[in-house]
Each structure stands twice: as structure tokens, then as C-alpha cells.
Amino acid sequence: MKKIINLTIAATVALTLTTSLHAMDGKKDCDVKANGITKVIATANVYNDQAKKKGLEFRRLNVNNSDLIISVEEAIKTGAKEVNPKTFKGKQSKTKLETNYAAERACKFAIAALTQDQEAKTTWRLAVPGDGYKY
After folding, report:
1. Which is it for strands 82-83 and 97-98: parallel, antiparallel or unpaired?
2. Which residues pair with 104 in a beta bridge?
3. Sequence-distant (≥ 6) Cβ neighbours of residue 23 within 8 angstroms
4. What does the CA dihedral 32, 35, 41, 47 come to, rounded to 10 degrees?
5. Structural domain boundaries of the chain?
């Protein structure tokens, strides 16, 4: 009986996460002008933590998404107009981004990592050789 209840709870949580991810719209939820930079970076933090737990964190231009989030948070505190996120080795990267753009980018990457994981579970079969498609 406990196994059935645990499976039911796990299925409900998975369905809720899947539904909420499909309901997430990176353009609307990550728009700094509409939502404000603090709300956008908070959204990025939540979804990036979930992505890191699954091992799906984005890395673009030699910068991890978590480093980009940290640099945007520091820029908000100091009032800087541009961010220069650190690379994973602690060295300064050559990447300089405008703060609002960096916040939107971090949010979109955090959401995209999770949505792509969910989509891959159903669409991976389309890329398998021998599936009937001619390449």
C-alpha cells in the first residue's frame, strides 16, 4: 500500500513539474521590462538549481549559468550596467554583457535546460537510425 501511495505521489510531482514547465514561457517569464530584474533572476535561480540537480546546467561562452546568475546578482547590488561573469576556474572571461540581457539570458537558459529534458523523453525516438525515416 505504501508503494502505491509513494508511486502516486511521485507521478503527481512529475506531472506537475512537466505541466509547469510546459506552461513556462521563457519570453514572458524572463522579460526584465515586464517583470523586473529581481523577479527574473529569482526565477533563474529556482530553475537553475533544479537543472543542476539533474546535471543539465547550461554552459555558453565558457560561462556556467550559475556563474552568470551570480554576476547578475552582484551587478544588481552594485548598480553596474555590465556584467563580466567568471569562468569555472575563477578567471575573468572576455564575455561582457549588459545586466538586463544577462538576467534574461540566465533565466531562459535555466528554463530551457528543464524543458529540453522533458521534450527529449518523447522526441528522442525520431532521431534513432532504423526508425523508418530516410536521411
Report:
1. antiparallel
2. none
3. none
4. -120
5. 26-121
Exposed, middle or buried by CB within 10 Å (0-12, 13-18, 19+), for 96?
A: exposed
What lies within 8 Å, CB to CB, of 85 at 6+ separation is 63, 67, 68, 70, 71, 93, 95, 97, 102
> Which residues, at least 6 apart from 78, have a Cβ–Cβ distance to it below 8 Å?
none
Tell me the per-residue pLDDT of 28-83, one tens digit each, with 9 for 90 and over. Answer: 888 889 888 999 999 999 999 999 999 888 888 778 888 889 989 999 999 988 88
**Percent helix, strand, coil in the chain (nearest 5)?**
65, 5, 25
Angle between helices 37-54 and 99-123 (to 10 degrees): 40
Q: What is the pLDDT of residues 71-102, one digit of tens each?
A: 899 999 999 888 887 655 566 667 678 899 98
Phi (first) and psi of residue 62, to 5 degrees: 60, 25
Q: Which amino acid is at 132?
A: G
DSSP E strand stretches across the chain:
59-60, 63-64, 82-83, 97-98
